[in-house]
Amino acid sequence: MSPDAPRAPYADPAAGAAVKAADRAHVFHSWSAQGLIDPLAVAGAEGAYFWDYGGNRYLDLTSGLVFTNIGYQHPVVVAAIQEQAGKLATFAPAFAIEARSEAARLIAERTPGDLDKIFFTNGGAEAVENAVRMARLHTGRHKVLSAYRSYHGATATAINLTGDPRRWASDTGSAGVVRFWAPFLYRSPFYARTEAEECARALQHLEDTLAFEGPATVAAVVLETIPGTAGIMTPPPGYLAGVREICDRHGIVFVLDEVMAGFGRTGKWFAADHHDVVPDLMTFAKGVNSGYVPLGGVAINAEIAATFDTRPYPGGLTYSGHPLACAAAVATIEVMEDEKIVEGAAYLGEHVLGPGLRELAERHPSVGEVRGLGAFWALELVRDRETREPLVPYNATGEANAPMAAFGAACRKNGLWPFINMNRTHVVPACNITEAEAKEGLAALDTALSVADEYTV
Known about the structure:
Layout: H1 13-26, E1 42-46, E2 49-52, E3 57-60, H2 63-66, H3 75-88, H4 98-110, E4 117-121, H5 124-139, E5 143-147, H6 156-161, E6 177-180, H7 195-213, E7 218-224, H8 239-250, E8 253-257, E9 281-284, E10 296-300, H9 302-307, H10 323-338, H11 341-363, E11 367-373, E12 376-384, E13 389-390, H12 402-413, E14 416-417, E15 419-421, E16 424-427, H13 435-453
Parallel strand pairs: 3-14, 5-6, 5-7, 7-8, 8-9
Antiparallel strand pairs: 1-2, 2-3, 4-10, 9-10, 11-12, 12-13, 12-16, 15-16
Helix pairs in contact: 3-10, 4-10, 7-8, 11-13, 12-13
C-alpha cells in the first residue's frame, strides 16, 4: 500500500447497513438477477481508491466502469462543477451556452482529422444510437455492420449492434444489422499464425461479407477502435486503415466507438491516433469528464455535418450538452493537459503495467495472454496454455464460473477491486495512478493468480 495513498475514513457499519437496506428495498440494478446480488455499500472514494463503511479500502482496477480516467474526486473538476452549478446549473440544448461551446471546442481540437462538430448525448449508448442514425440518413442506406466480441451499449440500436451475450435477451433481429469477425490472433477465427495473416484474412472476410450483403445497401461499419469489455484486443497494424479503405471504396460511413478507449486511456487522446486513421464519425463518453456527470457524444466530419446544414437532424435529447457535464469536461481536459495524464498513461503502459503483467504471466500458468497498452490491459486466463482452453466456458454462470469467482474473491481479499468478464481480468486503473499504486495492484494480482493457477491442468 502506498504511504501517500488516501486513507479510508472511520468505519460506520450502521450507516452502511442503512445504505444497503435502502438499496435492496428500492434499487433495481442493471445486468443482474436482483435476488442474487449483494452490492457493496461504498462510503467514499479518492484517486485510485474507494472504501466501504467497514473501513475496508480497495485499489480500483476498474476505474468505475472504465471511466474515472483522472481518478475519483479530482479537486479541480469538483470545483468546476460547483462553480457551474452556482452560475448556471442547467439550460435547454437549443441555446449557446459557454460551458457547452467550450467543451465542444476542446473536444474537437483533440479528435483526429476534420471531426470538428460535436453532438452531445448523455452517454455512450446514445452516442452510438445517433451515430448510426446520422450514417443512415447521410447515405440513404439501412444496413450496418458490426463485429462479434464487441459492446456498444444497451439502448435499442446499440444493443443490437453488440456482439456479446448481453445482446441475446434483447436481440429482436432488427433489420439491417449484420455481424462479422474482427481480428483477434490469440483466438483467430481465420486460422492465422501471424498478425499479418490475421489482418489480411480479417479484411478479406469483411470484403466477402460486404459482397454478399450488397455494399450499396450498407450505411456504416461500426467498430470499437480497441474492443473494451469484450477483451481489449488491439487490432493488428494495417487493419483499421484497411477498413477505412474498404469503406471509402463503397461509400460506407466508418464509425469508431471510442467510448471506452478514448481520452487518454490508451496513452493517446484517442486509440485511433495509434493507427493514423480518421473515421467519419467517432463516439465518445466515459473519460471525456471522468464520469463525474453523465456525458457522451458524436464527433462528426465536415461531409456528414453538411448533410444537415439545411435538412433538420431528426434527433435530440433534453439534457444534450448539460452545463454541469460540459463544465466537468472542460475541467477534465484541462487537468489532463496540465498534469500530462495522456503521456502518463503511455508511460504507465510501457514501463509499469506492460512489463509487470508480462512478468506475472511468466510465473502463472493460468495466464494465457497479456495484451493492451496505456492503462488498458487484459489477462486471458486459461486452463491449459497449450490448448488455450479458457479458464471458464464462454458466458459461464454458477458452478461453471467457480474458478473466476474464486479469483475475484482473492483479489478483493487483498484490497483489489478487479474487472472480470468471462475468463478475463482487465487491468484498467485510473490513467493517473501512481507507479507505487500500480505496483501495489500487480502484487495483489500476483497473489490472486495463484488461486486461478489451482484450476489449470
